[in-house]
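Below is how a single chain appears once it has passed through the pipeline. First comes the sequence as given, then the structure the pipeline wrote out for it. We keep one example in the README because the format questions we get most often are answered faster by looking than by reading.
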Amino acid sequence: MPALPAATSMPIFDFRCEDCSQTFELLVRGDVPACPHCGSQRLVKMLSAPNVAGKSKEIIASARRQAAREGHFSNYARSEKPRR
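Resulting structure:
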């Protein structure tokens, strides 16, 4: 799968503030970010694990609820389908 162009990607990073030790997530668009807790710009960019689209339990649960409302169970495993 090709990477998204820079204009459409969401540059969200995890940071840790060196002054107040708070960890937080920010959308960064080129400016030097500041800590939302204390205002410091002494931040360390943290390594964060990517969230793979479509693999989240909430997304799967939402799709299953929608399928059940529509009367089909094609996205359920055989063992998960309701017994009739």
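The CA atoms of residues 15 and 45 lie 5 Å apart.

See the next section for the split statistics.
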